[in-house]
Design goal:
The protein is α/β, with parallel strands linked by helices and 242 residues long. It folds into 2 domains: 168 residues, Alpha-Beta Horseshoe (Leucine-rich repeat, LRR (right-handed beta-alpha superhelix)); 40 residues, no CATH class. The chain contains 5 helices and 8 strands, in the order αββββββββαααα. The strands form 2 sheets. Strands 4-5-6-7-8 form a 5-stranded parallel beta sheet, with no helix packed on it. Strands 1-2-3 form a 3-stranded mixed beta sheet. α4 crosses α5.
Length: 242
């Protein structure tokens, strides 16, 4: 896939919110030290957009969603802070245009969905913190991340990755082509298979234990079936390049 010829256009600036209003709201509270600002989010819809004082945050127990444009234009946000297990969705534009955000460390294993433009125009260099539980990655979720060069753990074949996810990421595309792939998504799915097929039985055991409801096929039979499926998937994938 060739790199798009036009440049990425960021979303229009959202309405500015007043820090004083956010601080007094019962939906959120902030504590500040001389150099660090911490946000405890009680409601995923609460927004701290365009707040240049925000450098990190902590998600309180019970939050399942980081809302639409929650931290967009937070130009000094450098860390995802602590997202407790239970956060399942990062909605569109949630962390867009945060240039100091370079790592995905902090994303919980409960996360399943990353929305449209969620991390576009950030300073991300790698997707190493992307949890394996993610099954949906939206339109241009990581677009215009010029410093992005590593696909991290990749994505399972079950992950629905939008074709525009990595638009305007020239360094990542170059790295993928250097590995022999035409797109970053293709590289990511291949890498996921390569990593997990090193230990197919351990991977199958992990999947069965995670999804086990105490019903259905005996444990060992289910593990064997998963191993067969994983090997078949690899054979089909490799066969596509013969």
């Amino acid at each position: 896939m060739s790199a798009p010829s036009s440049s990425f256009s960021p979303p229009p600036p959202p309405p500015s919110s007043s820090p004083s209003d956010s601080s007094s709201s019962p939906a959120a509270k902030r504590t500040r030290t001389e150099s660090v600002s911490t946000i405890v989010v009680y409601d995923g819809s609460k927004s701290f957009r365009r707040d240049t004082k925000v450098t990190g945050f902590t998600v309180a127990a019970g939050v399942t969603t980081i809302g639409d444009s929650a931290f967009i234009f937070c130009s000094n946000l450098a860390s995802l802070g602590l997202m407790r297990e239970g956060v399942r969705v990062v909605e569109r534009f949630a962390f867009a245009l945060c240039p100091l955000l370079t790592l995905l460390q902090g994303l919980p294993k409960s996360l399943t969905t990353i929305g449209n433009h969620a991390f576009c125009s950030t300073g991300l260099t790698s997707l190493d913190g992307l949890p394996p539980t993610v099954t949906t990655i939206g339109n241009r979720a990581f677009a215009d991340c010029a410093a992005l060069t590593s696909i991290g753990p990749g994505f399972s074949s079950d992950c629905d990755v939008n074709p525009t996810t990595f638009d305007y990421c020239p360094a990542l595309l170059a790295a993928a082509k250097a590995k022999g792939f035409s797109t970053a998504i293709e590289w990511g799915k291949h890498h996921w298979l390569a990593v997990n097929c090193r230990f197919p039985v351990l991977y199958a055991v992990h999947q069965v234990r995670r999804d086990d409801d105490g019903e259905g096929e005996p444990l060992l039979k289910r593990i064997a079936l998963l191993c067969d499926d994983l090997v078949r998937e690899v054979v089909e994938f490799v066969g596509g390049y013969e």
